[in-house]
Amino acid sequence: MNYLLLYSSTDGQTKKIILKMAEQLRTLGGQCDIRDLNNDKNFNLSSYSKVIVGASIRYGHFNKALMNFTKTHQKQLNTLSSAFFGVNLTARKAGKDSAETNVYVRKFLEKTPWQPSIVGVFAGALFYPRYGWFDKKMIQLIMKMTDGETDTTKEVEYTDWNKVASFTQQFFDFKG
Ligand SMILES: Cc1cc2nc3c(=O)[nH]c(=O)nc-3n(C[C@H](O)[C@H](O)[C@H](O)COP(=O)(O)O)c2cc1C
């Protein structure tokens, strides 16, 4: 089975998740091509049986490349078996970590013409020391308002890797 795994990632966490998924799918016998949604432009979906797209949130929005891709390739995406997952820090909280309850993923699904076969939401990572001054202050403020980590010397990975593995297995098993 040929898989295309696409990601949109700014600080690398969504890419890390995609790479983990590819590793798991390869162990299960799948063939995986991994591409960056923001750098690669010409995607030929016809040589794949299954597609996974993962993207992260920055200041309330997915990268525009995500919506553009789903609009351009909507016909093929809706015929293939396809999976979408969103990555953000809101999803670190129980009750905000599903397709129905994560505001960013819910809104994206309302707007896109793509109907993914399965949808996932994963908590991302907080990398204070790697952020510039402005982002550091903004994220600290958001974390303060949402009872999160405010120590800007810290790096915290909230991603639940068991949830990532279950999602990958579910998609591997999916027969559309
Ligand atoms: C500048 C910046 C803005 C962010 N804005 C949001 C946000 O609005 N809502 C949210 O839940 N998470 C937000 N996050 C958290 C990211 O979604 C999280 O760090 C994720 O792991 C990033 O994934 P990536 O490394 O693949 O880009 C933000 C992070 C940064 C650095």
UniProtKB/TrEMBL annotation:
Pathway in which this enzyme or protein is active = Porphyrin-containing compound metabolism; protoporphyrin-IX biosynthesis; protoporphyrin-IX from protoporphyrinogen-IX: step 1/1
According to its UniProt entry, one GO biological process term is: protoporphyrinogen IX biosynthetic process
Catalytic activity field: protoporphyrinogen IX + 3 a quinone = protoporphyrin IX + 3 a quinol; protoporphyrinogen IX + 3 a ubiquinone = protoporphyrin IX + 3 a ubiquinol; protoporphyrinogen IX + 3 a menaquinone = protoporphyrin IX + 3 a menaquinol
MF (Gene Ontology): FMN binding; menaquinone-dependent protoporphyrinogen oxidase activity; oxygen-dependent protoporphyrinogen oxidase activity
User: A Gene Ontology CC term for this entry?
Assistant: plasma membrane
Q: What does the record say about how the cofactor binds?
A: Binds 1 FMN non-covalently per subunit.
Positions of transmembrane segments? none
**What is the annotated localization of this protein?**
Cell membrane
The protein's required cofactors: FMN
InterPro entries in UniProt? Flavodoxin_dom, Flavoprotein-like_sf, HemG, Protoporphyrinogen_IX_DH
Query: Per the database record, which ranges form the Flavodoxin domain?
Result: 4-152
Q: How does it sit in the membrane?
A: Peripheral membrane protein
Enzyme Commission code:
1.3.5.3
Q: Which UniProt keywords apply?
A: Cell membrane, Flavoprotein, FMN, Membrane, Nucleotide-binding, Oxidoreductase, Porphyrin biosynthesis
Q: Give the source's domain of life in one word.
A: Bacteria
One family from Pfam that matches here is Flavodoxin_5
PANTHER family, alphabetized:
PROTOPORPHYRINOGEN IX DEHYDROGENASE [MENAQUINONE], PROTOPORPHYRINOGEN IX DEHYDROGENASE [QUINONE]
Q: What does this protein do?
A: Catalyzes the 6-electron oxidation of protoporphyrinogen IX to form protoporphyrin IX; under anaerobic conditions uses menaquinone as an electron acceptor, under aerobic conditions uses ubiquinone as an electron acceptor.
Query: Into which family does the record put it?
Result: Belongs to the HemG family.
What's the protein called, per UniProt? Protoporphyrinogen IX dehydrogenase [quinone]
Q: Which organism is it from?
A: Moellerella wisconsensis ATCC 35017
Encoded by which gene?
A: hemG
